[in-house]
Amino acid sequence: MINLLITGGAGFIGSNFLRYWILNNPESNVLVLDKLTYAGNISNIKDCSSHPKFKFIKGDICDSKLISILLRRYQITHIANFAAESHVDRSINFPDQFMKTNILGTYSLLDEFKKYWSENRKPKNFKFLQISTDEVFGSLEIDNEPFTEESPYSPRSPYSASKASGDHLVKAWFETYGLPVVLTNCSNNYGPYHYPEKLIPLSIINILEGKNIPIYGNGKNIRDWLYVEDHCRALELILKSKKVGKNFCIGGSNEVSNIELITLICNSIDELVTKLPVKPSKKLITFVPDRLGHDFRYSINASKIKKELNWQTTVPLKQGIKNTINWYLNNESWWRPLLSDIY
Ligand code: NAD
Description:
binds nicotinamide-adenine-dinucleotide; alpha/beta; single chain; two-stranded parallel ribbon
């Protein structure tokens, strides 16, 4: 029986994962711990609140005392740590909270879990899953091979440096104490409930609102896009597998430049929506000064998880973008109140 603690479960990926987990594992007890920062939204998980085995606690992963109480009260066997400050642009302007949550918060969770696991005579079936990013590997040139589990860490932004630091702690708690941990490095996710400061939801909403679509630099930076539901399935497989002390790279095999991606979004919205403030919506594309230290390319070789856990993506980029646009079209009441934060 898995008693799962999902941290950051009211954020983008965490809320999608919660929904996916409850649907596929209705017998499992699930506790969400979330600080409800600007990126966390309780309405992201309101459809899960009637599930009899689900509980929500508002709190901070840096609060060791709270974590210690929750682990014991809910007899947690597995932790999936999604809680983080996740936006690169914010990390450039305000790095402080990134260091606190992504480093010290990861440390508090790990160490409290280690104490509790030790008290329980170190069961083999406990697991700490750290959700990390491919950005810890740095930036690739066009002809470089994709990242693998063996790629060296070379973070370049305050965000990726804070995530890399958290990851090193996770690896150290495995090597030093034998804590059963698994770490994942995934590529850029997209899908429903994505906070509209990020490229895909911001572009969709700006098109619907007739506002410019800002693209950094020349738009040639490349990302590998992963549909969030495919990511959730990978994480479920990892949580349930017996593998510990490993890391897995999870990617969508959908490498496109930002300008190709935005063109795809524009064309898809033009097809789906008859009346738009500006049509064709490509007219809204506006190049803006580049992000400081902007990584050129991320790319993931996901063959290890494909081979060892029989995982594969099921949603091609074109379909995933259509699903995502349709979700934003049908959920205006979710995103409209957030507009005052992003404009
Ligand atoms: P998000 O910003 O949408 O959500 C983060 C959640 O964590 C929010 O609900 C927020 O309230 C909560 N949180 C923040 N600080 C907290 C704290 N101190 N204590 C408790 N809760 C706190 O992020 P996301 O996009 O869902 O990303 C989830 C995880 O996946 C992060 O660890 C991120 O680094 C990683 N990741 C994301 C992507 C992506 O494309 N979104 C890609 C690779 C890795």
